[in-house]
Amino acid sequence: MTVIDSAVEANAVRAKTYDKSLGQPPAPKLVIVTCMDPRLTGILQMLGLGTGDADVIRNAGSVINEDSIRSLLVSTRVLGTKEIMIINHTDCGMQTFTDRDLEQKLENITGESPVAPARFYSFRDLAANTREQIRRVKSHPWIPKDIPVRGFVYDVSTGSLREVTATAATVAA
After folding, report:
1. Within 13 Å of residue 103, how many CA atoms lie on the same side as its CB?
2. pLDDT value for 58
3. Order of strands, edge to edge, in the sheet holding 54-59?
4. Domains in the chain with CATH codes
5. Going by C-beta distance under 8 Å and a sequence separation of 6 or more, which residues neighbour residue 173?
6. How confident is the model at residue 114 (pLDDT cuts 50, 70, 90)?
7. Does residue 84 have a pLDDT over 50?
């Protein structure tokens, strides 16, 4: 049996006791951009939030790219979220390679050199990467300027958040 088969079977059991109130239209006040790392799967609970309290956008490295901007625009302009939180984390796999290294590895494995993705958005410095993602959100002309955009690093060893301000000079502990 595959992992997907097991997941489908588990869903069939879980669906029998499904809370129908969870099917109501969402009205989140917060949107979170975070990494796809499985250690952040419970991010809502880690932040004391419940189901429906926040939209969660996940991708490798918590990157603000075309797709995450698309989701941020739907969240802020359609669903009415009022705050944006970007959460990177320690021990991120995106820090273990460079874009060129991964491209070369994939070309060696497949013998192909496709045009997409154009970037993998690898990085070395968590705080600098978080600041860059904040800057990308704040500089987008369709993201409302009155929406707070704050960035954090989640420590996978301690479970605590450390805020990273938009400027390099001040990193809150």
Report:
1. 13
2. 98
3. 54-59, 30-35, 83-89, 149-154, 161-164
4. 26-164 (3.40.1050.10)
5. 162
6. confident
7. yes
